[in-house]
Amino acid sequence: MKLTQAQLDQFDREGYLFFPAHFSAPEVKVLVDEVPALYAQRRPENVREKTGDVVRTNFAAHLYSAPFARLARHPRMVEPVRQLFGEPVYMHQFKINGKQAFDGDLWQWHQDYGTWRNDDHMPEARAMNVAIFLDEVNEFNGPLMFIPGSHKLGVLEAEHDTATTSYPLWTINNDTIRKLVERGGIVAPKGPAGSMILFHGCLVHASTSNLSPWNRVSVYLSLCAVSNHIRRFKRPGYIAHRDFTPLECLPDDCLLKDYEVPLPWKDGTPAEELKGALKAA
Ligand code: SIN
Ligand code: MN
């Protein structure tokens, strides 16, 4: 899959691209069917909401779940990112955010690259965020919100919020958000399950809590240009990966056929990947 010049220009201007229904319903079903068993596991990769046992985010499923290992190598996801960076990419972070009906808590306004730079010593903002909807995203179930064009401002000042949700995050203060929104407004791409968003590591984003009766499960992948790999291993390896092997794509039908994939963490997380503090984005 190749991005057109118009899409490249749009990405440069706005900091994101939206691909409605990029994956088909049967492809999404393979992934959706796997999520309850992943969320039921008692392993450090499952971070729960502050109100109880509901999973807020699950890390690194591509290392212990075959369908997600195939998604991590999907050409419809990897190729446009490789094209944008002009070089091979590796998986920096992989998460499945629950945003469950009634319980799914908010994500404060933030940029991801600030954390990648400060904590992981990633040299440049040459890592791409990819969101893939496993449920329909509508105006009620906490859609991801962007401030278009905010990626052009580089890394903004942020404070470490350890109180608002169960997951610590480097967040941007309200005054800055007010100014950014005056310039760029707010957009919230909505669409059916299977839709995909690519968004820049410096694009300011957030989402509200989910008061609706509909889950909003989405996969968030961060693909980093290999030459831009992280230099510091401060956070646990299951949050900021330390394996910089380039992603090799599987065929386009890989979600519907049983292509073989490595599952190195199937029997548990290696001890050395657990060391480090749980921190932000
Ligand atoms: C969201 O799930 O709405 C946002 C998650 C993130 O920014 O990582
Ligand atoms: Mn984020």
How does this structure look, described?
This protein has 281 residues and is α+β, with helices and mostly antiparallel strands. The strands form 3 sheets. Strands 1-10-6-12-4-3-2 form a 7-stranded antiparallel β-sheet. The radius of gyration is 17 Å and the shape is globular. The two termini are 28 Å apart. The longest helix is centred in the N-terminal third of the chain and has 11 residues, at 75-85. Strand 2 and strand 3 form a beta hairpin. 22% of the residues lie in helices and 20% in strands. It is built from 7 helices and 12 strands. The protein binds succinic acid and manganese (II) ion.
Largest sheet: 7 strands, antiparallel
Computed Rg: 17 Å
Subunit arrangement of the protein: single chain
User: Helix and strand succession?
Assistant: HEHHEEHHEEHEEEEHEEE
Measured between the Cα atoms of the first and last residue, the distance is 28 Å
Bound molecules: succinic acid, manganese (II) ion
Binned strand content: 15-25%
Give the spatial strand order of the biggest sheet. Answer: 1-10-6-12-4-3-2
Morphology call: globular
Average residue-wise pLDDT: 96
Give a nutshell description of this structure.
The protein is an alpha+beta fold and 281 residues long.
List the helices and strands and how they pair.
Blueprint: H1 5-14, E1 16-19, H2 25-32, H3 35-40, E2 46-48, E3 55-59, H4 66-71, H5 75-85, E4 89-97, E5 107-110, H6 112-120, E6 127-133, E7 145-146, E8 159-161, E9 169-171, H7 174-184, E10 196-200, E11 205-207, E12 218-225
Antiparallel strand pairs: 1-10, 2-3, 3-4, 4-12, 5-11, 6-10, 6-12, 7-11, 8-9
The protein binds succinic acid and manganese (II) ion.
